[in-house]
């Protein structure tokens, strides 16, 4: 199933790649084509025929052709090409012109790495790939680490605002976190049950006839733990038995921590896995979302538009069609579509702003100003302020224009400076559409049923049985296992180990003890007068030897197995933190390039981000490990 999903995602990558190629080649000098191993004439002609129809007299270019031309026509400099293309993209309602940015980064129009990265960011301010190149160009080529750090927030904003990137990062991140959390929670349950196992095995032996020897009692316990495998419940069923055993033999605080671990296991396997799968599947599976996204990037095919027109009630399709209508100059249709969207649901700033742009183009300044005002009521936006200033300019209201431009500069001076500069490229009216609101995509990801099939197939190896069949049954099973553990803890006459020598103290075996010491340790430490002096020294020496042996084994286990240090120091919360820090770090590092191939949106941003999260998780692990070791040393001395 993962493979199927990856194939679909790869397919998506190829589709985007071919789009990229069209843009890249249309701006490619012949020498660069030769470097790519392609005879300059051949693809050049193909790209020319795609970008510029050779038939004369030429019909008016389609918006896609106009955009490609703004990008590929001869230019004096990279800057000139970039601002011309950016202006044309914004005029056609394209906020992030990703294909052109990828072409710049591919080196088809020259420039050093820093210039290329800056041009790519200017063309596609929402493309994480471009921001990552800017960070690394500052870091590696300009050796300006401060500028690289200053570019980081832009990278994170791009990841959050690019439709495809936000879904890919959220889906991958949730998957990685789910794997880390479920592996960590399982390890915690295993360790808790292992610690309880000597006493649990002994007590279990009393429930069968006869007096079975120690190894038989352990075999009995192991058989009990493995029953769920035989019953077809898999690892999830085993985890439930371990949870019950761990809770039955735990102290109150240890029980709370085990409850948290069980909750983390459930959350990772069910809600997180489902949402992550839905986010990863959204683009490959949802043709409407994909068509709307291609259209918002300025290069939709006729098939995309037909696909959107086939679902006239879909809110995402409506918005994309409205952008398309405005782009093609069908202002009446665009206006009607925006009015339909505004009448149907709660409007977001993007709809209000874009509807205002259409109204302004139709010459209805007052209703445009009203729509911009409603957009600004929902939140300040430099773009809406800029458009509002254009509307005031059209109405020759200079005072209001200056006031609104000042507001715009206050919110984001750099962006307003860019827009004002772009306005000067061609001195006519220039308003800017806002991109599609991401909440529309997330509504689809969070819709009931989304991601269920993929997440259950990913979960099948761990939870194949009836208990793990659905989120609800699994939740009930976890709660029931915890309740059984609590009941056993209250009902059983639990055996314990002597805190000094480790020997068993069991009510049914009629051993005697005092507090947490066995009878002989109690005599040795609390009533030294009642024991023979020579015997006492021999026993103390034996205990010291045992302490040293146990201490060495404990240190080795603490270093080798995450969480052991915390459990031995009797800090179960630190144990859980260490385990989760370790497993999340391993998962982040293992899947640092993503679960499915990056659809040309992230580049080095994905491994950089995931390795950084892995590093932070390792710090949590190391902090918990060292503090637990220190706590154990403190309690020993
Ligand atoms: Zn003892
Ligand atoms: Zn016993």
**Major beta-sheet overview:** 2 strands, antiparallel
Classify the oligomer: single chain
Poorly predicted ranges:
1-22, 27-55
Helix content: over 70%
Q: Termini separation (Å)? A: 55 Å
Percent strand equals under 5%
Spatial shape: elongated
| Tally of helical runs | 29
Distinct bound molecules: zinc ion
Radius of gyration over C-alpha positions, nearest whole angstrom: 33 Å
How many strands? 4
Average pLDDT works out at: 86
Q: How would you write the strand order of the largest sheet? A: 1-2
**Helix and strand composition category:** mainly alpha
Topology:
Blueprint lengths: L1 H25 L3 H6 L4 H12 L11 H10 L5 H14 L6 H8 L7 H11 L4 H14 L3 H17 L1 H43 L8 H17 L3 H15 L3 H34 L1 H10 L5 H8 L5 H13 L3 H14 L4 H13 L3 H14 L3 H13 L3 H28 L12 H8 L6 H8 L11 H21 L4 E2 L6 E2 L7 E2 L2 E2 H8 L6 H28 L3 H5 L3 H19 L14 H32 L1
Antiparallel strand pairs: 1-2, 3-4
Helix pairs in contact: 1-3, 1-6, 1-13, 4-5, 5-7, 6-7, 7-8, 8-9, 9-10, 10-11, 10-12, 10-13, 10-28, 11-12, 12-13, 12-24, 13-22, 13-23, 13-24, 14-15, 14-16, 16-17, 17-18, 18-19, 19-20, 20-21, 28-29
The structure holds zinc ion (2 copies).
């Amino acid at each position: 199933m993962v493979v199927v999903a990856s194939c679909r995602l790869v397919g998506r990558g190829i589709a985007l790649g071919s789009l990229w190629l069209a843009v890249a080649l249309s701006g490619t000098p012949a020498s660069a084509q030769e470097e790519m191993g392609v005879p300059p004439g051949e693809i050049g002609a193909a790209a020319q025929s795609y970008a510029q129809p050779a038939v004369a007299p030429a019909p008016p270019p389609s918006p896609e052709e106009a955009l490609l031309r703004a990008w590929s026509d001869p230019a004096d400099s990279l800057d000139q090409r970039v601002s011309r293309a950016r202006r044309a993209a914004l005029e056609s309602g394209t906020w992030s012109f990703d294909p052109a940015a990828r072409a710049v980064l591919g080196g088809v129009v020259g420039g050093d790495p820093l210039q290329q990265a800056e041009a790519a960011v200017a063309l596609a301010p929402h493309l994480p790939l471009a921001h990552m190149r800017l960070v690394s160009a500052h870091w590696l080529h300009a050796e300006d680490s401060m500028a690289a750090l200053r570019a980081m927030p832009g990278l994170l904003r791009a990841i959050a605002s690019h439709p495809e990137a936000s879904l890919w990062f959220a889906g991958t991140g949730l998957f990685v976190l789910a794997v880390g959390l479920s592996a960590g929670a399982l390890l915690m349950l295993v360790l808790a049950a292992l610690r309880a196992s000597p006493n649990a095995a002994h007590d279990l032996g009393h429930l069968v006839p006869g007096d079975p020897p120690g190894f038989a009692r352990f075999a009995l316990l192991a058989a009990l733990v493995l029953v769920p495998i035989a019953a077809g419940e898999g690892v999830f069923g085993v985890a439930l038995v371990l949870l019950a055993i761990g809770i039955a033999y735990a102290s109150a605080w240890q029980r709370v921590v085990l409850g948290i671990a069980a909750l983390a296991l459930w959350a990772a396997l069910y809600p997180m896995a489902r949402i992550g799968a839905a986010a990863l599947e959204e683009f490959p599976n949802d043709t409407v979302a994909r068509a709307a996204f291609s259209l918002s990037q300025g290069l939709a095919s006729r098939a995309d538009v037909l696909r959107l027109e086939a679902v006239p009630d879909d809110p995402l399709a409506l918005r994309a069609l409205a952008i398309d209508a405005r782009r093609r100059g069908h202002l009446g249709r665009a206006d009607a579509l925006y009015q339909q969207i505004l009448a149907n649901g709660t409007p977001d700033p993007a709809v209000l702003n874009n509807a205002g742009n259409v109204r302004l183009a139709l010459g209805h300044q007052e209703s445009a100003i009203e729509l911009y005002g409603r957009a600004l009521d929902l939140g300040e936006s430099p773009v809406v302020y800029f458009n509002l200033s254009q509307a005031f300019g059209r109405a020759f209201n200079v005072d209001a224009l200056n006031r609104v431009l000042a507001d715009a500069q206050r919110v984001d001076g750099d962006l307003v400076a860019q827009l004002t500069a772009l306005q000067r490229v061609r001195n006519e009216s220039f308003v800017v559409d806002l991109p599609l609101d991401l909440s529309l995509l997330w509504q689809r990801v969070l819709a009931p049923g989304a991601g269920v099939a993929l997440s259950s197939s990913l979960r099948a190896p761990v939870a194949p049985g009836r208990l793990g069949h659905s989120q609800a049954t699994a939740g009930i099973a976890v709660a029931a296992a915890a309740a059984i553990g609590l009941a056993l803890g209250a009902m059983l006459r639990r055996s314990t180990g002597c805190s000094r020598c480790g020997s068993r103290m069991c009510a049914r075996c009629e051993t005697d003890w005092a507090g947490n010491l066995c009878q002989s340790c109690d005599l040795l430490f609390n009533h030294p007068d009642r024991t023979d002096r020579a015997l006492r020294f021999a026993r103390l020496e034996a205990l010291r030897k045992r302490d040293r042996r146990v201490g060495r084994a404990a240190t080795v286990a603490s270093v080798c197995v995450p969480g052991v240090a915390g459990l031995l120091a009797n800090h179960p919360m630190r144990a859980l933190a260490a385990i989760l820090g370790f497993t999340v770090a391993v998962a982040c590092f293992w899947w640092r390039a993503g679960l499915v191939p990056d659809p040309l949106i992230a580049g080095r941003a994905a491994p950089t981000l995931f390795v950084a999260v892995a590093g932070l998780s390792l710090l949590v692990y190391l902090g918990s490990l060292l503090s637990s070791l220190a706590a154990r040393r403190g309690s020993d001395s």
